[in-house]
Amino acid sequence: MFEKFLEGKTAIVTGSNSGIGLGVARQLARAGADLVLNSFTDRDEDHALAAELAAEHGVTARYIKADMSNAGECRALVEQAGACDILVNNAGIQHVAPIQDFPAEKWDAIIAINLSSAFHCTAAALPLMRKAGWGRVINVASAHGLTASPYKSAYVAAKHGVVGLTKVTALECAREPITCNAICPGYVLTPLVEAQIPDTMKEYGMSREEVIEKVMLERQPSKDFVTVEQLGDTAVFLCSEAAAQITGTTISADGGWTAL
Fold first, then answer.
1. Domains of the chain (ranges plus CATH)?
2. Is 63 annotated as catalytic?
3. Which of 63, 151, 155, 187 does the annotation list as catalytic?
């Protein structure tokens, strides 16, 4: 879709050893960006994944362990990277429960990982972007950053917060060649979601197609999943010159969910 116009740029993608983060990182590498992958583990396969992406796309790539629930480790990730032209704040977790039963520790963890990590990483990255004279901050929010569902109080609050942080970051950088935008996906077909389909089929006595349409994509009018490649290409577009005046906004990739 894109030429290698990001050669010489370094992209840090949090929560990127699987799912959406890995999909975004892969598309950025296809466009020529050097990569810093991240998650909270430090396994041989994490580092092997970075080496695989580097070899596949002819870029440099490395994996840096950092716990996104820890403010100091968020900032240390950026400092250890040494350069950050593109920051993709993607790390996130979920828990579902009624408000009165929602465990306090789960609330704290979701707010820390889904929202506070974006603040801390952005705070560390902006000086590097200003020094380089160019930057892109891309926050992976959610359709739940624009609307709500019951039993997801922490996630919805965090993702609404990410959208607000996106706007503030954009305004503070408005006179500089640095933009900040949020991508708001609906339901995305990740390995985690794929793995849930067989159990849901058994639970409801439905076919795969029925589970996808009637259960998983009940609120997604297109009745089709978003793909990680689509989200990755959206991130690449936001790094292009065509998007230089797109800042402080949300891009919904939700099959029409938030149009309802």
1. 10-188+226-252 (3.40.50.720)
2. no
3. 155
